[in-house]
Amino acid sequence: MRIYSLRLLFIIIFSLLFTGCWDIRQPEEAGIVIGMGLDRENDGTIVVIAQTVRPQQPGAGGVEGGGGQDPKPFHNWYATGETVFDAVRNLSLLSPNMMFFAHNQVYIFSERLARGGVLEVLDFLERDPEIKQSGWVVIARGELNDVMQSSEFGQQAPAQMLSDILSLHPRNTKYAPSTLADFLQALNTPNAGAYAAGVTYFKGVMKDQEEMSRTTAEARRPYELRVSETAIFKEDKLVGWFNPMEGKGLLWIRGELQQGIIVFPFEGKTLSYEVFGSSAKVKPLVKDGRLVMSIEIKARGNLGEASPGIYALDEQRLKEMEKSLGQAITEQINATVNKAQELNSDVLGFGGAVHRKFPQQWNKELGAQWNDIFSNLEVEVLVRAEIKGLGLITTSVNPRSKQ
To answer: Per the database record, which ranges form the Spore germination protein N-terminal domain (predicted)?
Structure first.
């Protein structure tokens, strides 16, 4: 019995020591996808672009001899298919490595695909267990291929650059981003609209490093990425864009603006207000038999800059400054509401607020008529903005006042 037990113990130990992961993928054998582009051709064929990291060889890096540079740190693989899954599998006809999507950071939809409807490509993104739901959804203005090829001097993959830019969005707040999970949830919410960040490309100011030896006129400038607008959807179709002012208003209404800069006029000067917190209350009211949406915003922040300067500031002037700031925020919110009603897309979440406040009336009639109601809904905006601090100074330097 003792010998049998020892044999069994040895078998278990050796089994643990020599058992490996049956589905392990070595880094050099896997195509690590960091960006996924989706488009649709005129005949309905689905296009998938998988941006993979190019493995760096030991000792690689720096500029090669003869003035050339190392290859770009990424590679774009293109495939088509009748469905997204079909196109993804067709990537294996081109790539020697199996595509690995678990590290994907951005899903870039072409504007053409978005305007025609994204319904056909969503099922795979929601169903496949390897798809990362926390990745960003981005809509490419212009050609998808150009966006996925743009990179500052080729030192960083465009998908990685996009992910890094979007991760910093709380500091800018000129557009409203969505992760894939948030985007899918918004699309699945009745009488609501989804939104996502928009990306475009432009010719940069700086010259490419490999072109530095040429004259300034001859040196080419690489195309760089810019995220500054918000794509607005109705059902599964892109219907329009919010500019930076309207995108900021969307964040105010949804209570998601906790940082950022508000530039506003005051007594002929231009002031910058740094937000460090805000709250929003969206409440449906009934006034004289009319449905009215009330938006209450509370903002807290510091004075970050006064141009050309403030030379006398007392309590009364501070209150007047806060009033001007409140008017500027109100204008942003009103611009957003007007644009959303023009596009007839309830990305503002008004329908959800009405449903929660008046569930019986919603189920009886309001829900079925919401598209018509929303486009003509009266909205009241109340903003209370507080300037908590003035920075390191209370009076700006004024060399012109010297005698």
So the answer is: 23-195
d(CA 345, CA 337): 10
Q: What are 225-234's pLDDT values in tens digits?
A: 889 899 999 9
Shared-domain flag, residues 274 and 219: no
Task: Provide the domain limits for residue 86.
Answer: 26-55+68-242
Beta carbons within 8 Å of 39's beta carbon, 6+ residues apart:
46, 47, 49, 109, 110, 112, 113, 144
130 with 95, same domain?
A: yes
Task: Indicate if the pLDDT at residue 215 is higher than 80.
Answer: no
pLDDT tens for each residue of 345-401: 999 999 999 999 999 999 999 999 999 999 999 999 999 999 999 888 877 777 666
pLDDT of residue 1: 58
- pLDDT surpassing 90 at residue 302: yes
- Spatial contact of 33 and 99, defined as CB atoms under 8 Å apart: yes
> Crossing angle for the helix pair 180-187 and 119-127, nearest 10 degrees?
130
Residues 270 and 403 in one domain: yes
pLDDT tens profile 45-54: 999 999 998 7
- Mean of pLDDT values over 276-300: 95
Centroid of chain to Cα 280? 21
Alpha-carbon gap, residue 328 to 306, rounded angstroms:
15
- Of 24, 26, 27, 91, give the one whose Cα is nearest residue 56: 27
- Assign residue 371 the CATH number of its domain: 3.30.300.210
- Beta-strand ranges (E) seen in 174-319 are 178-179, 195-203, 223-234, 237-242, 261-266, 269-287, 290-307
In order of 19, 260, 388, the CA distances from 319 in angstroms are: 72, 21, 11
239 or 2: which leads in pLDDT: 239
pLDDT bin (cut points 50, 70, 90) of residue 76 is very high
Greatest extent of the chain over all pairs of C-alpha atoms, in Å:
107
CA dihedral sign, ordered 228, 233, 237, 239: negative
Count of domains for the chain: 2
Q: 282 with 295: CB under 8 angstroms?
A: yes
- Listed residues 242, 267, 290: the one ending a domain: 242
Same domain, 138 and 274: no
Last residue of a domain, one of 242, 267, 287: 242
What span, in angstroms and rounded, lies between the C-alpha atoms of 196 and 122?
A: 14
